Amino acid sequence: ARNGHVATVKVLLGQGARVNAKVYGKTALMYAAEAGHVSVVQALLGKGADVNAVSQNGKTALSLAANSGNRDIVELLTKAGAKK
Question: What is the model's pTM?
Answer without folding.
Answer: 0.91
